[in-house]
Amino acid sequence: MVKNQIVTVTIEDIGNDGEGIGKVEGYTLFVKGAIIGDVAKVKVLKAKKTYGYAKVEELITPSPDRVTPRCAVSGRCGGCQMQHLSYEKQLAHKADKVKNCLQRIGGLSEEHLAEVMEPIIGMDEPFHYRNKAQYPVGIGRDGKPVMGFYAGHSHNIIDCADCAIQEPVNAVILPVVKAFIEEYGVSAYDEEKGTGLLRHVLTRVGFHTKEVMVCLIINGKKFPKAEILAERVKTAVEEFGLNADTSCRYTLKSFCLNVNTAKTNVILGNEILPVYGETYITDYIGDIKYQISPLSFYQVNPEQTVKLYNKALEYADLSGGETVWDLYCGIGTISLFLAQKAGQVYGVEIVPQAIEDAKKNAVLNGMTNAEFFAGAAEDVMPAKYRESKGSMRADVICVDPPRKGCEESLLDTIVAMEPERIVYVSCDPATLARDVKYLGEKGYLVKKVCPVDQFAHTGHVETVVLLGNQKTKPDSHIKLSVDMDEFNKVKNGEK
Length: 495
Prior knowledge:
The protein is of the alpha/beta class. It has helices at residues 87-104, 110-116, 170-183, 226-243, 302-316, 333-339, 352-364, 377-387, 408-417, 429-441, 484-491; strands at 6-14, 20-24, 27-32, 39-47, 51-61, 132-139, 145-150, 157-159, 198-205, 211-218, 251-259, 271-277, 281-285, 288-292, 323-327, 344-349, 370-374, 396-399, 421-426, 444-452, 462-469. The strands form four sheets. Strands 8-7-6-9-10-11-12 form a seven-stranded mixed beta sheet. The longest helix has 18 residues, at 87-104.
């Protein structure tokens, strides 16, 4: 296979980024925009020894599961990869992805998974679900500012305000900001040169409260006429709220600046400058109230988050007297959810600001049985256990790590604490399966698995897993070592 070659391929699988996967005489092609069941003529864009990348030139036979995307820029924008696949098939694909990773990497047998795996929890309405948006700002070919989302695998900005998966109120905020910077000559950021003032527009919207935050990320300390822009955004948000089909009206709760003068791909700096209102909004997950700042980690899909956390709470199986450790606790979202039924919850997070937010959220909800510590969990948990002379031993440990999964040292610490149950919340099935394998070798058996669709129309899926302490050697359905070649193949989309 060589670059620019035209071939006909039948798509048989979907990769990690939602691309179609097919084979031509044993050679694997990853085809953007193709889905399972498509037969297409494709043009090879990049050819490696055993696999390559291609784009659709002509759709010969469309898949019966192909649908028309709701968003006009879905084919170019990197935010959604699967809007052209029916939602029912998206869910089936994600459930299969979790199952396959747990088999191939985690070493769990098909028979065991048939017993423990629950149906994927999907959305009733898989659009306009995201409560957070980060719009990069740049300069278009016509010299005018553009705001929207990066095209896939690039930093080319696709101009877009009305995103099909973002909160609808964003569609009135972005035009106001764009018109303002054109009127007042505010420069857009040039990523290559590191010049220009406005880098990103960040928005957050309370799913239940409809409180709106607008945060401008700037390459400097001041933003001209910021108070005037805040008033214009406030008016637009309130007018939108009057016409919105909701029982709770939208209000601008926070308009602020975030200073980031570093030449970096990291979006946010550490300094927040208030312009209007507070530097946070509030929202609920179930009955728990949270304060959310521009820097807070907070699940972007509140409708599914309450389902995810309820499943974690169910798996924790708390009766009121247990001690729970929540590792990677962030601002205490899962911690406080578990504290509703636990005797005591200890949350650990390496980011000090997140721990401060977690403590505030505990006070906000009047919860006295949740305590938070800043530091690495593999250091904090054993130290506190020793200091307490064993009284802080975990009955249940909950982990919700980033995509890279848990460090081996943390897994060893978890095992050393000997909890009865481990509730693992994962955003990456491959690293989840790797860690489940490791814990299985240490005597923790997978008892329940439930995928949750937090990110409709993308290739991502969340999963909640319950592991129980067997206090014996692992069962025969668990292999003895992680197959790292298999792990890497799945991670790279080769299987």
